Amino acid sequence: MSSREVVVLSVGGVRFVTRAFTLQQFPESRLARMLNDDDREFKLVNGEFFVDRDGALFSYIMDFLRTLQVSLPTDFSDYQRLQREAEFYGLYPLADLLSQEHLLKPRREILEVRFSLQEMQAFFRIFGSCSTTIEALAEQITVFTGQQSGQGWNSPFPSQKPLVPLPLERPSHHDMVFLCGTEYSASDQFVARYVSIKPDNRKLINGTNVLGLLLDTLLKDGFRLISTRTVVSEEKVECYTFERMNRATSLTITVNQTPGSSGVAQARRSQVQKGK
To answer: What is the 3-state secondary structure (H, E, C) of 94-105?
Structure first.
């Protein structure tokens, strides 16, 4: 059969259309043998191969054959059933990967925002279990400083001098600290700090407004607010805890393409993260 020919399969009542070449990625698999009429369990009915198996799980089998990658939804849980299906079709490299659930399961990421108001200033501290998320967030947040006389912190004002960006304080790779608002200097001037969070271009001075924009940014980035609490010490600190399920690193199968190969495969990690 030519590798350019179209093959139609009906798996558990779900119809799939693909090329013969895709099904022959692993020559010793039952799907490859099916095309040569070497497997009696696959019945050819009206030009379609009928397979009495789970059609929903077979969609992941087809995705694997087309991409040679294992990339599953964050809410996927049927690892054992999918492994059993892979074994049924003789796709043992895929079955071996599915037996290593710890490599495929999504990972839970935790991020906490701490917020407090002190006189005319608002203080922020962000902790994260994933340092790359904190690095990315630090790239989005910019603090600017400027001076003006005779204004209050709830009345944003245009600075007489250009606003100057300030570096964020980074106590560690897993957290950052910044503040906004105004303070009265010895030279009868208000020193103001504004916060901008990309992609929003506004420069905000009011702490409550900055908090709202920050929380909205995290929600849009796939985080889910799971708890809020207030810690009372010398000052009242509001704590907002978020979580996000990140897809595991994609696993790629490298197939030995040498002549006469029996489809020996080797798994390797892809460096590309699948989603946030």
So the answer is: HHHHHCCHHHHC
Residue with tokens 């010490």: 233
Which is nearest to 116 in space by CA: 247, 243, 250, 232?
232
Q: What is the pLDDT along the chain (276 residues), one digit of tens a residue?
A: 444 589 999 999 999 999 999 999 999 999 999 988 777 788 888 889 999 999 999 999 999 999 988 888 877 888 899 999 999 999 998 998 888 766 667 788 999 999 999 888 999 999 999 999 999 999 999 999 987 655 444 555 544 568 899 999 999 999 999 999 988 766 667 789 999 999 998 999 999 999 999 999 999 999 999 999 998 776 789 999 999 987 655 556 555 544 334 444 444 444 334 333
Residue whose tokens read 């200033």 = 121
Instruction: Please work out, in degrees rounded to the nearest 5, the angle formed at the alpha carbon of residue 62 by the alpha carbons of 56 and 65.
Output: 155
CA–CA distance, 197 with 7 (Å, rounded to integer): 51
What percent of the residues of the chain are helix, what percent strand, and what percent coil, each to the nearest 5? 25, 40, 40
The secondary structure element, H or E, covering residue 228 is: strand 224-232
- Which pairing describes strands 6-11 and 48-51: parallel, antiparallel, or unpaired? parallel
C-alpha–C-alpha distance, residues 182 and 161, integer Å: 15
Q: Report strand pairing: 121-128 vs 175-184.
A: antiparallel
CA 226/CA 3 separation, integer angstroms: 51
Question: How far, in Å, are 146, 179, 180, 261 from residue 189 at the CA level?
Answer: 10, 18, 16, 78
Q: Which two tokens stand for residue 202?
A: 């506004």
